[in-house]
Amino acid sequence: MSEQTTAPAQSEIVDRTRAYVRENFLYMRPDWKLGDEDPLLGTGVIDSIGVIELLEFLQQTFQLAIAEDEITEQNLGSLAAIGRFVHQKCHANGSGASVRPRQLA
């Protein structure tokens, strides 16, 4: 018998990604207002190396593979875009990726 899991809600994806971005990229700027639609690239939030780190976080946390041609500003340019993209990927794959909180060191 296989275990049925539920894909994460878009709001949960946004919240978990926001927490990751704050912890890893905005730790020196705790007062930075980061709205769901605010651009992550070109505003000093995430640079090109940060995009690679963000991709790794998304793939590990939400148990999905992101293809090279999916690495676009449309998919990863804001928290809201990431929420939509990851939510669609989880449902399209039928993976129903289970989201378990990562243990922080």
Q: Percent of residues in beta strands? A: under 5%
In total, how many beta strands?
0
What do the pLDDT scores average to? 86
The total count of helices amounts to 4
By CATH, the architecture is named Orthogonal Bundle
| Broad shape | globular
For the record, the CATH class is Mainly Alpha
* Poorly predicted tracts of residues: 96-105
Number of domains: 1
Distance between the termini: 34 Å
Can you describe this structure?
The protein is an all-alpha fold and 105 residues long. 47% of the residues lie in helices and 0% in strands. The chain contains four helices and no strands. The longest helix is centred in the N-terminal third of the chain and has 16 residues, at 10-25. The radius of gyration is 14 Å and the shape is globular.
Descriptive tags:
mainly alpha, Non-ribosomal Peptide Synthetase Peptidyl Carrier Protein, Chain A, 0% strand, globular, disordered C terminus
Quick structural overview:
This protein is an all-alpha fold and 105 residues long. Helix content is 47%, strand content 0%. The N and C termini lie far apart (34 Å).
Fold topology:
Blueprint: H1 10-25, H2 48-61, H3 73-76, H4 79-93
Helix pairs in contact: 1-2, 1-4
